[in-house]
Crossover junction endodeoxyribonuclease RuvC (Hymenobacter crusticola), 206 residues
Amino acid sequence: MAVYPASPLDLPKLIMGVDPGTQIMGYAIIEVTGSKVEVLRYDVINMKALGTNHAVKLKKIFDRMIELIEEFLPDELAIEAPFYGTNVQSMLKLGRAQGVAIAACLSRQIPYVEYAPTKVKQSVTGSGSASKEQVAHMLRQTLKLPPLEEAPKFLDATDALAVALCHHYQKGNNLKAGGKSWGKFLADNPERLASATTAKKPTKAK
């Protein structure tokens, strides 16, 4: 009896979704097997008690991201792109928070893709101008999440879940145009590796 290898579509894939923030950062982990989606966790990194020291918050984001990566070993990161606002300082801080989350994943060779907020909302609700509450409501229906009173208190968690689900809907197509892992970058740019003789190749946590 012939034994055929499993199709890549049949193998489970773990997607980490992140909704960047400087006070509260949402994150979610989903497992996708074919068309089946299972929510493993969705919650927030709460930094409100850390005061106004932005560097301390960035370290908190990095450390927590590494903990989550080592616990779940996600295959891909989907992260929401910073929105454009009138407060330049807030935009800079948000961009740094996003960059630190991306750096944590790249340190473990996890590729990433950015999605505009309107793209995420459109993918989940059908409307690019949907509110956080509407996104959360649609997710509860689509993924059969627990009632609101049993769900995480912060809508940033459901926003992160929406980012992960949006990436699933894209079926990984954006990985070709989106971010690449550090290992892939070195493979595409061997001259960089030759010049960085003291650099060590990052390894994925076991």
Observations:
- The first strand starts at residue 13 and ends at 19.
